[in-house]
Design goal:
Elements (H helix, E strand, L loop, with lengths): L10 E6 L15 E5 L6 H4 L5 E4 L16 H13 L6 E6 L5 H12 L5 H4 L8 H10 L6 H21 L9 E3 L1
Parallel strand pairs: 1-4, 2-3, 2-4
Antiparallel strand pairs: 1-5
Length: 180
Amino acid sequence: MKRRIRLKKYAIHILPIPAVTSDMFEYPIDKNALISCVTRTTPFLVGETDLSKLILPFNDVEDANVPGAFNSAYAREIIRFIKSIPDSVTDLYVCCSKGGSRSPALAAALLKASGRSDRTVWKNPYYVPNKLVYKIMRDELGYYIPWIIVKLKSFDNEMQFKKAKRKGDSGKYERWQILH
């Protein structure tokens, strides 16, 4: 079993990449870092900036055999990036296309590695965390989790969505969440 990697407790922001603009970050900019799971970018990210960033595109699939699926190499690259983030960084922005699958899965694994609970993500009915990203990231961080537990978390997440839908509050969610 891998040695557990303990991460700093960042305020983790989950959002879609189109929402990334220069005016959304905590100032000064060197207090922030960003991980993007997609190649799509924004004018702010293309320009010169002091923002620590990792753009690591991988497909939003849950079958490890599909080309471009998340794998251990991607997870290790994310871990290397996080370890290289300057100490001044307090906020970590995690982005994917819509902010609903890859970025919540990554955020959940990072929460676990920083000594916090991932329940905030899995209990949110508007996220559908990518099981493959979550499992591999946790395993690479040294927080092994059996597939059956990941599937149970996913099932509970689906039940949360159905409950929200019955209450009529599905679709009223703004895909932006800060996890402390």
